[in-house]
Design brief:
By secondary structure, this protein is mainly beta. The chain has two domains: 1-61, no CATH class; 125-307, Sandwich (Jelly Rolls), CATH 2.60.120.200. It has helices spanning 24-40, 125-128; strands spanning 50-53, 59-62, 69-74, 77-83, 90-95, 98-103, 132-134, 140-143, 148-152, 162-167, 173-183, 190-196, 202-208, 216-224, 227-234, 244-250, 254-260, 267-273, 286-292, 298-307. A seven-stranded antiparallel sheet has the order 7-10-19-12-13-14-15, with no helix packed on it. Strands 8-9-20-11-16-17-18 form a seven-stranded antiparallel sheet, with no helix packed on it.
């Protein structure tokens, strides 16, 4: 027999030196010990098994791994072949010799859909910082799976701006929002974004129905929450589809209002120097998400919200 390096690990029960009298019992005992030792050092398990050290000191084995399996530790036991388990929002794909782990887009967070490059994570009162009311009355706000929603009872035929507000970011900034509205209006029902000077005046961009008819976009001026002071801009009643995108921008010197149906291409429908604007140089100090609930109970939802 030819002994390799590993055979040095085999302990023999008898030492036989040159010149000793032949003893078949000792020779056979050494032979059997060597055979047993060599057998214990042979690979364990079937072809492509993963070798481990058994508790008795020889080789143990983990069965051949299938596509995507890994050896997972088990305290005081041999490792086990297991598949990775995907947690919430995680997708795991496997193949021969490979594992691919990817995130599953959450609702409202984009992903691979049409709007994935422009949708934000799901807006909430906390994430948008729209944390306080302007003229709340009987209105209510909720955070839901699709965004932050305001529900406002009908004001009949009277103007009555109800809004959630927050301080404006430090200029320059741009706010892009996706808004959906559920309403059954018989009057001039409006919803959108705008600015509030913190005291009385508002400068707003709204999607507004006209006597319950097809909606239009308009930039409007308000002396207070019930006093309409005219429009800087309005489209025709083009029946814009929902949800719709609006954009407010302040470069430090001028403010502007924009509209879009795809979230990427905006029409700047009105802009003005802040010093000449309805709210004055220092008046564009608060952002509002508002509803004017003329003609019907109205729920409006911010479905995407980005401040850049």
């Amino acid at each position: 027999m030819a002994a390799g390096h590993a055979n040095a690990q085999c302990a023999l029960p008898y030492t036989i030196q040159n010149g000793d009298a032949p003893d078949a019992t000792k020779v056979m005992a050494n032979y059997n010990a060597l055979v047993a030792c060599m057998a214990s050092m042979a690979p364990a398990g079937q072809t492509f098994s993963v070798q481990t050290k058994a508790a008795a000191g020889g080789f143990g084995s983990v069965p051949p791994l299938s596509d995507g399996q890994l050896m997972i530790g088990s305290t005081n036991n041999a490792p086990e072949p297991q598949q990775l388990t995907a947690g919430s929002g995680i997708n795991i794909a496997t193949g021969p010799g490979q594992i691919a782990i990817s995130a599953i887009p959450l609702a409202g967070s984009g992903g691979s859909g049409l709007y994935h490059q422009i949708m934000s994570s799901t807006p909430s009162a906390a994430s948008t910082e729209l944390s306080s009311w302007l003229n709340q009355g009987a209105a209510a706000v909720t955070d839901s799976a699709v965004g932050i929603s305001i529900t406002v009872p009908s004001s009949g035929t009277l103007n009555n701006i109800v809004a959630r507000q927050r301080p404006s970011p430090t200029p320059p900034y741009k706010i892009t929002a996706l808004i959906g509205v559920t309403r059954s209006s018989t009057s001039y029902n409006g919803i959108g974004l705008g600015w509030f000077n913190g005291t009385n005046r508002l400068h707003l961009l709204a999607l507004t129905t006209q006597n319950g008819g097809l909606p239009k976009f308009e930039v409007t001026k308000w002396g207070d929450v019930t006093t309409f002071n005219g429009a800087d801009f309005q489209t025709a009643n083009n029946g814009y589809s929902q949800p719709f995108w609006v954009q407010l921008a302040d470069d430090g010197t001028a403010v502007s209002f924009g509209i879009s149906q795809d979230g990427a291409n905006f029409l700047k429908v009105f802009s003005t120097a802040k010093s000449a604007g309805w709210l004055g140089a220092a008046g564009y100090s608060n952002i509002v998400f508002f509803i004017n609930p003329q003609g019907g109970l109205t729920t409006g939802t911010l479905m995407s919200w980005k401040v850049e």
